[in-house]
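FAQ: What does the model actually see?

It sees only this:
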Amino acid sequence: MNRRIVLVLTLIPALVFVGFMLRGNSEQPAQRLLVTGSSTLAPLAAAIAERYEATHPGLRIDVETGGSSRGITDVMRGDADIGMASRALAASETGLRAYTVARDGLAMIVNAQNPIRSISSAQVIALYRRRIADWRELGGRPGAVILVHKAEGRGTLEVFLHHFGLENSDIRPDVVVGENAQG
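And it is asked to produce this:
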């Protein structure tokens, strides 16, 4: 057999094999979109992500919580594609564009057995500054007020503080919680 033919017959399978090895899996790897931030927005973002993924099979969207400040910081650093925030951007958080997707509200809650039916803004401020420490001072049954507060970096906390004209350093909570499910 001609030496050229043997060389060609040997090279063709080798080149085909190398081509398959270089090509690897014929499917493109899934693209990943990372969304981080506000636990308030996370359920909505997860539902939107699930529907979007269903119509875009090459895309995977991961939704992670950690607070509004985390979402904003992650986007500014390039660690996330989308940041979820339940507060307005601060003047120092430049180079970002905010889109409102929903509005939520804050509520003061008490145990169902507590006879208190309303509370003024001044009373809320006094509670959070520990000037009121017993329910009796608000017309309730005698007993210590257990003050539950959000962790720093949470958009909900920042909206609350702004609304009541408080600073985080003014607050003296009994319990600090992070995720919405906690409090």
